[in-house]
Specification:
homodimer, alpha/beta, Four Helix Bundle (Hemerythrin (Met), subunit A), Rossmann fold, 7-stranded mixed β-sheet, 4-stranded mixed β-sheet, 16 strands, 20% strand
Chain lengths: 321, 321
């Protein structure tokens, strides 16, 4: 099955798919300068927290490889923590491989919670384009589909940046998984009238009590799921846990450009008025039926279950060290 | 204060503001042929159930005025229920005046329920552009604002047709009422974190038990309002009551073109995938705190309160007859 490759390390350089131009055009760039990578991240050529992490690692590797530093000492003083160039490249490749393994593990744990057949829903794009693997939330759907579950995916478009319409719809379409694209204000109607068996989304950050920050719109989908007795799940790697944050009230919400609300792909769709653009919202843990991670499945009470998974992760890392 | 005129009967013909081009351009057409009016309604030059009613009445009046029927008998056989041409024109003007009076009355009843200051929210466009008067839901906000209430209106853009972004934002901006435009998936976030005092929307059809069909997205706003203890109101004329329908389960939902979901103002925003476009949804009465009409305010149990208002209306009509 087709899995989108948002980023790849090649002999020619770092190859990145331009996600801003999807689905209209499938264009890739080859970067050989770390400053180009930084620019690509800023301009959202690549997106999704895990994929951005991969890009940043590859960018540092490029920077070291092509550094203009006159001496190794000069380079070492710039990047004192890096032992050698080849090691950094390997590290970047390794990060990518680990992301892939993480996604596949999340997918296997989560797939068990998907219905045998019928509709499921996701939000934004927590797919291959966002992670560099098979995706987190979309990875769950993908594994379940490959297991033979007859799923049909409802995809809210996810304004203002349209990650659902542009990226998730494109990934599912490419992967041969049936879908129906809807606008964000149709979610409630389909949960009330349709037979939706499960909802699964990604996460940007998960607090110690299970409150989850994710793309704007996630909170209201979770509320509508509860009201209509549809289980709402989060699929995310343990690295998104932030157990130093007690609850969602302490997660700051990034405010992005209001121009993305008043304009769509450069076309003005509203008069010159004030607009708001909180990029994320916080879904309280009480709306979350379970959290799928690469180490297993967390359930309420999350304070205990998340800590147990986080410690399992640390033991794993310690045994590798 | 500026009140948009979506349609007007003039000596030159029926003048209609092209709502599809708002807010980018303010263009009006003058129609002298009823077939042009029919086409304008089909193509959504004008929208909103009350305004479409006004347009239809004016269209019939034009048709009679400019009929090519060779004889009055021929015309009468076409339109046997019409007594004379001038009467029809007067009737069309009268319908328009009544719509205006209706809106103003709804506005006065509903304004009492608006907060003295702070944020309120609406949905879609139930404003002057939709009714030909001051609007229903926006009429409530307008009257409250004119009473000196310091309101700030949160306006969800209302995909796919963007009536909120294009029309409601434009009307409020023109009227000097402060607003913030948001995308439809931000509604929950603002209800949870903001201090929203009330929500008021229009209605397409209200069943005997109070279940209300309105623009897609209304249902989920009502659920999110309940979850966050924000009162959710409907503002609509008694003519939207359909007491022959026992409940919302019997209201058919119109499915419109999926192309409006996959495209935005002619620009493709999604790959060539299946998309759904239910134009309306049904909000169960249990989410509705009150219904503002031109005859007064209905509260639960709606079966009794709606019937009482409907009968009041009939008595009023009988006393006029």
């Amino acid at each position: 099955m087709y899995v989108a490759q948002p980023i790849e390390w090649t002999d020619r350089g770092v190859v990145m798919l331009d996600q801003r131009r999807l689905p209209a055009e499938e264009i890739s760039y080859t970067y050989t300068d770390y400053r180009e990578i930084a620019k690509a991240i800023r301009e959202m050529v690549i997106r999704g927290a895990p994929a951005i992490g991969v890009a940043a690692a590859m960018g540092v590797a490029l920077g070291v490889l092509h550094s203009a530093a006159k001496s190794v000492d000069a380079l070492r003083s710039e990047l004192s923590e890096i032992c050698d160039k080849q090691g950094m490249v390997e590290e970047a490749k390794q990060v990518h491989l680990e992301k892939k393994a993480t996604d596949e593990s999340i997918g296997r744990f989560g797939a068990e919670f998907m219905p045998r057949e019928g509709q499921v829903m996701t939000q934004c794009n927590a797919g291959a384009l966002a992670t560099g693997g098979i995706g987190t939330a979309l990875g769950v759907i993908r594994v379940a589909f490959e297991q033979g579950r007859k799923l049909h995916v409802l995809v809210p478009e996810t304004r203002p940046y349209l990650q659902g319409a542009r990226l998730t719809a494109w990934e599912l379409h490419k992967g041969g998984i049936p879908l129906t694209l809807i606008t964000d204000n149709m979610v409630g109607h389909f949960l009330k009238t349709g037979k939706v068996g499960a909802i699964v989304t990604g996460a940007d950050r998960i607090a110690a009590n299970g409150d989850t920050a994710n793309k704007i719109g996630t909170y209201q989908i979770a509320v509508l799921a509860k009201e209509n007795s549809v289980p709402f799940y989060i699929a995310a790697p343990v690295s998104t846990f932030d157990l130093s944050i007690p609850d969602g009230g302490h997660i700051p919400i990034e405010e992005r450009s209001a121009g993305e609300v008043t304009h769509l792909q450069g076309v003005r769709i509203a008069p010159d008025v004030h607009a708001a653009h909180p990029a994320f919202d916080v879904t309280p843990a009480k709306y979350i039926a379970a959290i799928f991670t690469e180490r297993g499945v967390a359930r309420a009470p999350y304070k205990e279950s998340l800590r147990a998974l986080a410690e399992m992760s640390q033991q794993h890392l310690a045994s590798r060290g």
